[in-house]
Write a structure and sequence with these properties.
It contains 2 helices and no strands. It is mainly α. The two termini are 23 Å apart. InterPro entries: Arc_rbn_hlx_hlx (IPR013321), RHH_5 (IPR012869), Ribbon_hlx_hlx (IPR010985).
Length: 58
């Protein structure tokens, strides 16, 4: 199931994201979701995010 997140970006960041999304022919929200997903996967693989919410050590 997907969840929604609302965030505020600095104008400069949004404009760069918009140009990037346009270049790829995709919506800004889709590109942002992809980038967040990749960042979370990387952080998990590097051990920066606990695997279990109730037990941060696992």
């Amino acid at each position: 199931m997907s969840k929604r997140v609302y965030l505020t970006l600095p104008d400069k960041v949004y404009e760069a994201l918009e140009r990037w999304a346009d270049e790829q022919g995709r919506p800004v929200a889709n590109l942002a979701a992809y980038l967040v997903e990749r960042a979370v996967e990387k952080a998990e693989s590097e051990g920066k995010i606990p695997l279990n919410k109730n037990n941060p050590k696992t």
